[in-house]
User: Fold this.
Amino acid sequence: MAINTEKNSYTVIFAAIMVVIVGTILAYLSSSLSGKIDENKRLEKQQNILYAMGVNENVGEGSVSFVPTEKVAGEFSKYIKEQLIIEGDKITKDDQAYLIDLKKQATAAKEGKTRKLPLFIGDKDGKTFYIIPMRGKGLWDAIWGFVALDDQMVVQGVYFDHAGETPGLGANIKQRYFMDDFAGETILNGTKYAGIAVAKGNNDPLNEIKDDNEVDALAGATITGNGVSAMISESVNLYKDYLETIRVK
Amino acid sequence: MALLSKKDANLIKDPLADNNPITIQVLGICSALAITAELKASVVMAISVLFVLGIGNVVISLMRNIIPSKIRIIVQLIVVATLVIIVDQVLKAFAYELSKTLSVFVGLIITNCIIMGRFEAFALGNGPWRSFLDGIGNALGYGIILVIVGFFRELLGSGTLFGFPVLGNPINKTGLYAFGYENNGFMIIPPAALIVVGIIIWVQRSRNKALIEDN
Assistant:
């Protein structure tokens, strides 16, 4: 009893059944795992914010290690003293500010609404960190990160991540040697919020010049690098009114 | 008694050399160019493809008698995309760190022509066990080339292997760099992979004349 697999009716029925089966499996999987996945993402965000302000478990020169997930909630409330939402001139405190979706806020801004800008104030060994979340475009997909500033607008640490940059090239923005170059750079050029450019040919591979608003680029990752430059300068400019109020001149 | 019959063993052995998916069939070139700047990325991609191709070939082979030929390519695409998404979601829930490392490879695996090529050319016409061996063989053949290319590109382009400096420090001028050696930045960019693959094809064909087409 061979089925005639060439018939049109068979093809249509096969396609319909296949879609239902695959759809059911994926929908079931997605809804049953989404709670766990969201929780992982939430903890990761806390880990990233702490990483930028130097609370991490890095050992040696190359490692990027976060505070372990079991400990992160405690460490987060210990080091992050205040979470602010800046909405135009209005500044409110909200300890859920880190959950704000920057992508949605950017869309809201395009529609003419006031965008909610989250900002985190950390305190480690008596030193205050102002941590700004950032989001931008890489070569293939979104890139995002956090930059921790002190009250002189000098970068204390950064964390970058990406959704789909090329492994070995653009994906290296989350490597230690790239992120560490940002520490000590100033985002100010005179009194202008210039950000930090990922520059080719800045002739400073050891990154000894800290006031040039530039770090050494990654070979083979020009567009990702340009994306990082644009992301930093856009983000610091969004926050510049607030940053002016806390800057020690 | 051998574990595999000679015919079955050839399913694994052939793609490693004389019927290699990259150097002979010229499939999967896109990912071979894109991600071989580092050895680590090459190895991760090779293992991921091994997994997806092994299981995907079995699934397609089990379904081979009921798939309507008119929509077989779409069915194959759905099978591979479903497999990859399931793995990605499960990893995201239970091994988040690992899933971060692998997430960039997901898109590359779904569109890998070797996977579609093996479904179409082998799994649709053979039983599950033979299809499984064929999948493993082809994924290993693909992986070997990826690792060779990744080895040379990372060594010559960055002077490191798996991220560890093996030729000294280029900035402080230690090791080989003390004698004026420089990293070749060209090896980092994708065209260099094409040249390395070309050299592998050259070496392979000069050792086995039967591979050279006469025209």
Remarks:
- The helical segments of chain B are 6-13, 29-34, 39-62, 72-94, 96-110, 113-121, 128-158, 191-207.
- The beta strands of chain B are 160-161, 164-165.
- The interface with chain A takes residues 34-38, 40-41, 44-45, 65-71, 74-75, 78, 82, 85-86, 89-90, 92-94, 96, 103-105, 107, 154, 157, 163, 171, 185, 188-190 of chain B (CB under 8 Å).
